[in-house]
Amino acid sequence: MSSGASSTGDAIAALLRRFTPLEVLNEDPSSKTAWLLGRIDGEDGASASAVVTVERPPFSLGGAGPGLFHGIALGEGEQNDIYSWATGFANSAALGPDLRVSVIYPATEKHISKHRRQQRRWVCETPQLYAQIVQPYVDAQPAARLRWVENILDKRVEAERIVYEDPDRETGFVILPDLKWDTADAASMYLVAIVHRRGIRSLRDLTAAHLPLLKNIRAKAAIAAQRYNVPADALRLYIHYQPSYYHLHVHITNVALESRGMSVDRAHLLDTVIANIEDIAPDYYQRATLSYVLGADSELWSRWTAHSG
Amino acid sequence: MSSGASSTGDAIAALLRRFTPLEVLNEDPSSKTAWLLGRIDGEDGASASAVVTVERPPFSLGGAGPGLFHGIALGEGEQNDIYSWATGFANSAALGPDLRVSVIYPATEKHISKHRRQQRRWVCETPQLYAQIVQPYVDAQPAARLRWVENILDKRVEAERIVYEDPDRETGFVILPDLKWDTADAASMYLVAIVHRRGIRSLRDLTAAHLPLLKNIRAKAAIAAQRYNVPADALRLYIHYQPSYYHLHVHITNVALESRGMSVDRAHLLDTVIANIEDIAPDYYQRATLSYVLGADSELWSRWTAHSG
After folding, report:
1. Is the dihedral of CA A6, A10, A15, A17 positive or negative?
2. Is residue A112 less than 8 Å (CB to CB) from chain B?
3. Is residue A15 less than 8 Å (CB to CB) from chain B?
4. How many beta carbons lie within 10 A of that of residue B233, not counting itself?
5. Is the CB of residue A112 less than 8 Å from the CB of residue A51?
6. Would you state the pLDDT for residue B6?
7. Catalytic residue among A249, A251, A268, A307
8. Rg of chain A's alpha carbons, rounded to an integer?
9. Which of A1, A86, B3, B105 is the right S-S partner for A74, CB 3.0 to 4.6 Å?
10. In degrees, to the nearest 5, what angle opens at C-alpha A105 toward C-alphas A100 and A107?
11. Which domain of life is it from (chains A, B) (predicted)?
């Protein structure tokens, strides 16, 4: 439905000039992105909801020359010895475009709630609270939620996507590219190892009995990554807690990749997990207090509030 | 050396108009930040190196009204059913400032190499390797590198920036905004607690003796954050290992903030640190294997290679 680059840009700009913002649905200050709900008046006088995402694009500095900051206007600033800093306006195209917009129009209630910020809540999970709140939740997961994992392990689907396999029932696993990775750019390499052994639901289940499995993943991930020319010392291996599904899997990324999933809010380095079990205590993960963030709309968070309420 | 907000901004803008870019030292597309090396001609005709960090600030949408996109000009774009997107220029102050700059001028070779993109290397630091490689490096740090910390703790500089203090010599600390945070946007709140007690160089030094200090920081950070209307359950507290300076400090951010510093590559949650010492082993951090990433140009990495080579 695209109809030539600039006229499409002009049409979107014309639409946005009729946009009246009503609410900031969400903001991500680190990626410099915000999500706005508003209304756009149609040509017939009626109006409909629109969700507009505004994002600052990365700088385009390829042609940066002497006049780069010619039009700069700075407001508040500070100077301390050789260091100074200030915020203002570039007033120049030399740094590249300053805005990327996406528009959903007309937007439904479903679009709106999908883009509205979920409050995030910290949870500090002691072993006692794991037993009282989290383990019952994990036990209650329907088996059907892991059917896609079983399908992969049994090669019923995605068999052609498997890039490495150790078929051992106790210490083996398959490795395949994460769906978030396009497999083209080695700098953003993102693989996932899914273990063959059933019944290891999360970090909480890991003991000294699993050291051969964990060390095997660490060793063989390096072989899988060779396929993408990513050397062993450039690999970041980690486990999420809470995971998004309760069958043990290990994330394998290029250390050059920065992603939300490697946040200390969720990620536990495989090296640390192995060392905690081997050098500190074989039952470390049954005794540990694990802190993490939950979305306020998640089922697990509702169990936490029901417990404390 | 600050001399009134707007005239300082004007002075920095005047400096930047004389900036000639020579090289893009590094770029981070996810945070929309770039580091430029260039030269600035002095008034005497001589010129010196400058490192300029340009960053897109988060949007300021507090006063967003009907004319928000009035001046928008979009280039390439796409439309597909109810979805459309395009990149261009806002041509408006309604979205807030579009540029934050930091300048180091004159900059030394050390400043330049610190900001140049480095290859990243994983290190798996056992207690033995800490004793052999890292502890001698930490011991060799010149005292002068901590002079700015002493200046803050003794109120010789930045006293007006301190937002909270517990003056106790053993369990006290000061809290001030991190220089990366503009103090305006609560969603990106970033504070640092610097302990009064001298001689705690890093995570490796922490034992059960420090639990009162660590718990005091956890409790009082919530009071400091109230000033910015950030509730206690929205705080992420963590310690870096390796730290950027060897005097114990704790990072305090809004959980809504996503930043490179909260990566599992470096960050250790204060809750986890306290639980490891209290519930697992009082000497946990003397026995732990700690994994982290070093820049290939860093002095510490050169010590690792010298040790293994």
Report:
1. positive
2. no
3. yes
4. 13
5. yes
6. 61
7. A249
8. 24
9. A86
10. 115
11. Eukaryota
Lowest mean per-residue pLDDT among A132-141, B193-202, B253-262: B253-262
Q: Which residues make beta-bridge pairs with B26?
A: B35
- In 3D space, the residue among B101, B115, B81, B138 whose CA is nearest the CA of residue B300 turns out to be B138
B235 Cβ neighbours under 8 A, 6+ residues apart: A122, B221, B222, B225, B252, B253, B254, B255
* pLDDT for A110: 85
- pLDDT at A14 exceeding the cut of 90: yes
Residue B31's closest chain A neighbor by CA? Answer: A31
Q: Does B188 touch chain A (CB under 8 A)?
A: yes
A264-283 residues touching B, CB cutoff 8 A: 264-265, 267-269, 271-272, 275-276, 279-281
Q: Is A303 on the interface with B (CB under 8 A)?
A: no
CA distance B173 to chain A (A): 23
Extended beta strands in chain A, E state: 19-28, 33-41, 47-55, 73-80, 83-89, 99-104, 120-125, 164-166, 173-177, 190-195, 235-240, 249-254, 267-269, 290-295
Of B12, B90, B257, the CB nearest to A30: B257
Question: For residue A6, which residues of chain B lie inside 8 Å, CB to CB?
Answer: 75-76
Instruction: Say whether residue B46 is in contact with chain A using an 8 A CB cutoff.
Output: no
Question: For residue B202, what are the contacts with CB-CB under 8 A and spacing of at least 6?
Answer: B138, B241, B242, B243, B246, B248
CB pairs under 8 A between A and B: 334
Kindly report, residue by residue over B51-97, the tens digit of the pLDDT.
Answer: 999 999 999 988 788 889 999 999 988 888 898 999 999 998 899 99
Q: Walk me through the domains of chain A, giving residue ranges and CATH numbers.
A: 5-115 (3.30.200.40), 120-308 (3.30.428.10)
Strand partners, A292: A123
Q: Which structure tokens are listed for A257?
A: 């990749």
Residue of B nearest to A124 (CA): B271
Q: Please, what is the average pLDDT of chain B? A: 92
Residue B2 pLDDT class (50, 70, 90 cuts) = very low
**Nearest CA distance, A219 vs chain B (angstrom):** 14
Q: Does B19 touch chain A (CB under 8 A)?
A: yes
Selecting from A81, A255, A260 the residue whose C-beta is nearest the C-beta of B122 gives A255
- Which chain B residue's Cα is nearest to A260? B258
Q: What's the average model confidence in pLDDT over A24-51?
A: 90
The question of whether B249 is a catalytic residue gets the answer yes
What are B243's strand-pairing partners?
none
pLDDT digits (tens, 9 = 90+) for B204-244: 999 999 999 999 999 999 999 999 999 998 999 999 999 99
* Model ipTM value: 0.76
Q: Which amino acid is at A111?
A: H
The answer to whether B50 and B19 are in contact (CB under 8 A) is yes
Higher-confidence position of A267 and B256: A267
Is the Cβ–Cβ distance between B30 and A31 less than 8 Å?
A: yes
Encode pLDDT of A104-116 as tens digits. Answer: 999 999 889 888 8
pLDDT in tens, B100-134: 999 999 999 989 988 998 888 899 999 999 999 99
CB atoms B256 and A29 under 8 Å: yes
List CB contacts (< 8 A) between A95 and chain B. Answer: 54, 99
What pLDDT score was predicted for residue A188? 81
